[in-house]
Amino acid sequence: MSDPRFDPEKGGLVPHMGITLLDEGEGWLEAQMVIQQHHLRSGANALHAASMIALADSVCGFAAGNVLPASAKGYTTIELKSNFLGTASEGTLIGRAQADHLGRTTQVWTSTVTHQETGRKCALFRCTQMILY
User: By CB neighbour count within 10 A (0-12 exposed, 13-18 middle, 19+ buried), where does 48 fall?
Assistant: First the structure.
């Protein structure tokens, strides 16, 4: 049985990008994305920045959904920042989200995107999630 967050019935960005869940727990979540041609910059053999952001923001968002306050109806990203440290043209990226602040109205999350085969960090990402009531 597939996880409907990562493989929703009507598709969407996450399955299009090939992002799949690896593991999760209270205040963290880890997923992977195997690098494909559509993740690369047009005409270049390097990752498009948006591909890494899609992975980083997705793991933070799904992790936020796991720790919502009881009366919350959902969440949305209201701010994000990313520092790119490296790139790759093949292999697998691992995105790991960790909670930094779990408030009633906002949550702050950090994600690290790592190239699995080399262990090299490719991006550091931080976002703020607004909790919706």
Answer: middle
Nearest one of 99, 112, 31 to 68, comparing CA atoms? 99
Please provide the size of the chain in residues: 133
| 121, two tokens | 């960090």
Instruction: Give the span between the Cα atoms of 55 and 94, in whole angstroms.
Output: 8
Cα 114 vs. chain centroid, distance in angstroms?
12
The pLDDT tens digits of the residues spanning 37-82 come to 999 998 888 999 999 999 999 999 999 999 999 999 999 999 999 9
Name 72's Cβ contacts closer than 8 Å, sequence gap at least 6.
131, 132, 133
Phi and psi at residue 73, to the nearest 5°: -100, -15
Instruction: Quote the radius of gyration of the chain (alpha carbons, Å).
Output: 15
24 pLDDT more than 60: yes
What's residue 10's pLDDT? 87
Mean pLDDT in residue range 5-13:
88
Beta partners for 81?
A: 126
Task: Evaluate whether 110 touches 59 at the Cβ level (below 8 Å).
Answer: no
